[in-house]
Specification:
Helix content is about 0%, strand content about 45%.
Length: about 130
Protein backbone atom coordinates (compact mmCIF):
# COMPACT_ATOMS: atom_id res chain seq x y z
CA UNK A 1 0.00 0.00 0.00
CA UNK A 2 1.34 3.40 -0.98
CA UNK A 3 1.64 5.86 1.89
CA UNK A 4 3.08 9.30 2.45
CA UNK A 5 3.72 10.38 6.02
CA UNK A 6 4.46 13.97 6.98
CA UNK A 7 6.14 14.93 10.23
CA UNK A 8 8.02 17.78 11.87
CA UNK A 9 5.26 20.28 12.42
CA UNK A 10 4.68 22.14 15.66
CA UNK A 11 4.25 25.47 17.36
CA UNK A 12 6.94 28.06 16.67
CA UNK A 13 7.30 31.78 17.27
CA UNK A 14 7.41 34.23 14.37
CA UNK A 15 10.90 34.26 12.91
CA UNK A 16 11.51 30.68 13.96
CA UNK A 17 12.28 27.59 11.91
CA UNK A 18 10.91 24.12 11.36
CA UNK A 19 11.95 21.22 9.17
CA UNK A 20 9.20 19.06 7.73
CA UNK A 21 9.79 15.52 6.51
CA UNK A 22 7.83 13.47 4.00
CA UNK A 23 8.50 9.75 4.17
CA UNK A 24 7.23 7.18 1.71
CA UNK A 25 6.29 3.57 2.28
CA UNK A 26 5.16 0.97 -0.19
CA UNK A 27 6.99 2.62 -3.06
CA UNK A 28 10.13 4.56 -3.87
CA UNK A 29 9.96 8.31 -4.12
CA UNK A 30 12.77 8.72 -6.62
CA UNK A 31 10.50 8.13 -9.59
CA UNK A 32 8.31 11.14 -8.72
CA UNK A 33 8.53 14.88 -8.43
CA UNK A 34 7.33 15.64 -4.90
CA UNK A 35 5.71 18.78 -3.61
CA UNK A 36 4.49 20.37 -0.42
CA UNK A 37 1.04 21.88 -0.12
CA UNK A 38 -0.60 23.69 2.76
CA UNK A 39 -4.15 24.42 3.80
CA UNK A 40 -5.12 27.07 6.31
CA UNK A 41 -8.56 27.12 7.94
CA UNK A 42 -11.17 28.42 5.53
CA UNK A 43 -8.73 28.52 2.62
CA UNK A 44 -8.04 26.31 -0.34
CA UNK A 45 -5.04 24.00 -0.41
CA UNK A 46 -2.12 25.68 -2.16
CA UNK A 47 1.13 24.42 -3.57
CA UNK A 48 4.13 25.70 -1.63
CA UNK A 49 7.16 24.05 -3.17
CA UNK A 50 8.20 21.11 -5.29
CA UNK A 51 11.31 19.25 -6.37
CA UNK A 52 12.01 17.15 -9.43
CA UNK A 53 12.62 13.42 -9.17
CA UNK A 54 16.38 13.89 -9.44
CA UNK A 55 16.43 16.89 -7.13
CA UNK A 56 17.95 19.05 -9.83
CA UNK A 57 15.01 21.41 -10.17
CA UNK A 58 12.88 23.16 -7.56
CA UNK A 59 9.97 25.54 -7.57
CA UNK A 60 8.52 27.81 -4.87
CA UNK A 61 5.40 29.85 -4.36
CA UNK A 62 6.16 33.57 -4.24
CA UNK A 63 4.97 33.72 -0.64
CA UNK A 64 7.79 31.42 0.56
CA UNK A 65 10.66 32.21 -1.80
CA UNK A 66 13.85 32.96 0.06
CA UNK A 67 12.49 31.48 3.30
CA UNK A 68 11.72 27.84 2.48
CA UNK A 69 14.07 25.26 0.98
CA UNK A 70 12.97 21.90 -0.39
CA UNK A 71 15.36 18.97 -0.65
CA UNK A 72 15.26 15.23 -1.06
CA UNK A 73 17.31 12.21 -0.12
CA UNK A 74 16.31 9.40 -2.42
CA UNK A 75 18.53 6.96 -0.52
CA UNK A 76 16.35 7.60 2.54
CA UNK A 77 13.16 7.74 0.48
CA UNK A 78 12.33 11.15 1.93
CA UNK A 79 11.70 14.77 1.00
CA UNK A 80 12.21 17.70 3.34
CA UNK A 81 11.00 21.27 3.65
CA UNK A 82 13.21 23.61 5.67
CA UNK A 83 11.13 26.58 6.74
CA UNK A 84 12.91 29.65 8.08
CA UNK A 85 11.73 33.13 9.06
CA UNK A 86 8.27 31.75 9.68
CA UNK A 87 5.32 34.12 9.71
CA UNK A 88 1.86 33.77 11.26
CA UNK A 89 0.45 33.47 7.75
CA UNK A 90 2.45 30.26 7.30
CA UNK A 91 0.12 28.61 9.82
CA UNK A 92 -1.55 25.67 8.10
CA UNK A 93 -1.63 21.91 7.77
CA UNK A 94 1.18 20.88 5.45
CA UNK A 95 0.91 17.91 3.10
CA UNK A 96 3.24 16.21 0.66
CA UNK A 97 2.27 14.52 -2.56
CA UNK A 98 3.56 13.51 -5.95
CA UNK A 99 3.23 16.51 -8.23
CA UNK A 100 3.56 18.11 -11.59
CA UNK A 101 6.30 20.51 -10.55
CA UNK A 102 5.21 23.53 -12.53
CA UNK A 103 3.40 26.76 -11.88
CA UNK A 104 0.99 26.24 -10.29
CA UNK A 105 2.10 23.12 -8.45
CA UNK A 106 -0.53 20.40 -8.89
CA UNK A 107 -0.94 16.91 -7.53
CA UNK A 108 0.02 14.06 -9.83
CA UNK A 109 -1.32 10.52 -9.63
CA UNK A 110 0.81 7.63 -8.50
CA UNK A 111 -0.34 4.38 -10.10
CA UNK A 112 -3.49 6.16 -11.38
CA UNK A 113 -4.50 7.55 -7.96
CA UNK A 114 -3.91 10.75 -6.01
CA UNK A 115 -2.31 10.14 -2.63
CA UNK A 116 -2.21 12.59 0.26
CA UNK A 117 -0.60 12.05 3.62
CA UNK A 118 -2.38 12.89 6.85
CA UNK A 119 -0.62 16.24 7.07
CA UNK A 120 1.36 17.93 9.81
CA UNK A 121 0.18 21.05 11.62
CA UNK A 122 2.41 24.11 11.59
CA UNK A 123 1.39 26.95 13.90
CA UNK A 124 3.32 30.21 13.96
CA UNK A 125 2.31 32.31 16.90
CA UNK A 126 3.79 34.31 19.75
Amino acid sequence: QLQLVESGGGLVQPGGSLRLSCAASGFTLDYYAIGWFRQAPGKEREGVSCISSSGGSTNYADSVKGRFTISRDNAKNAVYLQMNSLKPEDTAVYYCAAVFCGSPITIAPMRLKDYWGQGTQVTVSS
